[in-house]
Every structure is written in structure tokens, then in C-alpha cells.
Write a structure and sequence with these properties.
By secondary structure, this protein is mostly helical. Helix content is 74%, strand content 1%. It is built from twelve helices and two strands, in the order H-E-E-H-H-H-H-H-H-H-H-H-H-H. A hairpin with an 8-residue loop joins strand 1 and strand 2. Helix 7 packs antiparallel against helix 8. The protein is globular. The relative contact order is 0.13.
């Protein structure tokens, strides 16, 4: 009898401690999501008392290409593609180098991780100063035309500038994850590969890389989501310019809703983008999980 009463008391405590968190999550995430679904079917400027119901007109406007959202989506796809590939390849290469035993290994790990703990907006402003004033100073000192390029004024250069800054800021996080994965690879398996006559290159690509499956899945998924939600760096660096060459999907949603006060169209863009991100991330997770090797 006492045991059953203790179980009931413990269960009641769990419920009571969980309810505030559930209420908070619902208020911050689920209720606004449902409301945005309703607003996507309306025309509303955020001030009028009653939104005007217009059905699927906002979605027709987006899919017809009459606004800038589709071009913003194309930029986001290109940015995410290069961001995922370069950040993961570079992070894995640096992680392999930093797992070697040398005197300054821990110092380099810390130096690579420092940009990740900085605010994305601050990173954007720092690099904006570097692209405009810092590189100009280098050009005056060296005379090399490379430093005098219009890094933020030319549309193609602006794309690569934003991509480089995004990769630089987040690289340390992926390096840490890959280092953890490399250190978890059993040493006896590596030694067995060497005993069987495998070279260092064969051992790395045929043994180590497959065993890094969980780490790769995590890094690819995290870099994919970080690439798809890019916002802060673009807002600080280019504000979507020049023209709309660096105009991301998230920036388009923000400007449509909070700058132009078109909450209906902004909500429709957010709903479509949510579906797109959901499909892409689930397909990626499914594809990556199939390639994982169990120890």
C-alpha cells in the first residue's frame, strides 16, 4: 500500500514539474505556429483588428514568383550546399590534424572554437569592417589586387563573402564533434587494419570514416539546419544586397512580416519554408543513418 502511494506521489510530482515547461513550449512554439498557419490564409498588416480571409492567395503569390521569396530560396539552397560541404570537409581535416600529439594542439582547438561562441551579428560586423577597411589597408601595404576586390559590392563576391564568414564562424563546433568521434574510434581496429597491410590512406577512408558515421550524421544535420536558417550574418554584412544577391529565405520572411507589415504573406512564406526544411532534413537524416556503421 505504501509503495503504491509513493508511486502515485512521484507520478504527481513529475506531472506538476512538467506542466510549466509544456505550457511555456506551447506558448512560445506551438500556439504561434498554429496562428501563423491561420494568418497565412489572410491579409493582415498587424494593426487592423480583424485579418481579411483570402484563402490561398498568399501561396499563389509566392509560387507564381511575383515576390522575391523564390529567388531567396535559391540563394539559401546554394549557400547551404557550399556551407555543408566545405564546413564538414574542412572540419574533418582539421580534426584529424588536431588529434595528433603536438605541443600547441589544445591552443589551436581553442582558437578555432572561439568564433563559434561569438554572436553571429557581432561576427558579421567584424567581417564587414575587415572586408571594407581591413582589406583596403592590406592593399595599400602590398599592392595586391586581390585585397582590392569589391567583396560586398559585387553580387557574386558578396555570395562567397557571406559563405566564407558563415563557415569561419561555425567551423570550431564541427571540429569539436569530429575530434570526439575520432577519439571514440577503437584503436585495436585501426591497428588490425595496419597489421593486415592497409596503408594510412586506406585505413582512414575504409575504416575510420565509416566508423565516424554518427559524428558525420550530427555534423551534416547541424550544418544543414544552420545553413538553412542563415539570417544574422547576412543582416549584419549585406542586408540582402547588393540588389538581392544575398537575400535569404529567413530574411525574406522577416522583411515581409516585420518591415513591410504584411503578416499574411510573411506567414505563408514561413509555412512553405517550414515544409521545405522538414522534408530536406528528414531525407538527409534518413540517408545519413543508412551509412552509419555499428561497432
Amino acid at each position: 500500500m505504501k509503495r503504491s502511494s509513493m508511486k502515485k506521489k512521484k507520478g504527481l510530482e513529475n506531472v506538476l514539474f512538467t506542466i510549466p515547461a509544456v505550457i511555456l513550449v506551447c506558448m512560445v512554439m506551438y500556439i504561434p505556429f498554429v496562428m501563423s498557419g491561420y494568418y497565412s490564409l489572410t491579409r493582415w498588416n498587424g494593426i487592423a483588428k480583424q485579418p481579411v480571409f483570402i484563402g490561398l492567395e498568399n501561396f499563389k503569390t509566392i509560387l507564381s514568383g511575383s515576390d522575391s521569396f523564390l529567388s531567396a530560396m535559391w540563394f539559401t539552397i546554394r549557400y547551404t550546399f557550399f556551407f555543408v560541404i566545405v564546413s564538414n570537409v574542412a572540419a574533418l581535416a582539421l580534426a584529424v590534424a588536431l588529434t595528433k600529439r603536438f605541443r600547441l594542439a589544445n591552443l589551436y582547438r581553442g582558437l578555432f572554437f572561439i568564433p563559434y561562441i561569438m554572436s553571429m551579428t557581432i561576427v558579421g560586423f567584424i567581417w564587414k569592417f575587415i572586408f571594407t577597411s581591413g582589406f583596403k589597408k592590406f592593399f595599400e601595404l602590398t599592392g595586391w589586387g586581390f585585397w582590392n576586390l569589391s567583396w560586398l559590392g559585387n553580387p557574386s563576391m558578396a555570395f562567397w563573402s557571406v559563405t566564407i564568414v558563415g563557415i569561419w564562424q561555425s567551423l570550431g563546433f564541427y571540429i569539436v564533434l569530429y575530434i570526439a568521434g575520432l577519439q571514440a574510434v577503437p584503436k585495436d581496429i585501426i591497428e588490425a587494419a595496419y597489421v593486415d597491410g592497409a596503408s594510412r590512406r586506406q585505413t582512414f577512408f575504409k575504416v575510420t570514416v565509416p566508423l565516424l558515421g554518427p559524428s558525420m550524421t550530427t555534423c551534416v544535420f547541424m550544418s544543414l539546419t544552420n545553413g538553412l536558417k542563415v539570417f544574422d550574418i547576412i543582416l549584419a554584412l549585406t542586408k540582402g544586397g547588393p540588389g538581392q544577391s544575398t537575400y535569404s529565405a529567413t530574411l525574406s520572411i522577416y522583411n515581409e512580416a516585420f518591415t513591410r507589415n504584411n503578416y499574411g504573406l510573411g506567414s505563408a512564406q514561413a509555412i512553405l519554408y517550414f515544409v521545405f526544411v522538414l522534408v530536406i532534413t528528414q531525407l538527409t537524416l534518413k540517408m545519413m543513418s543508412r551509412k552509419e556503421v555499428a561497432l
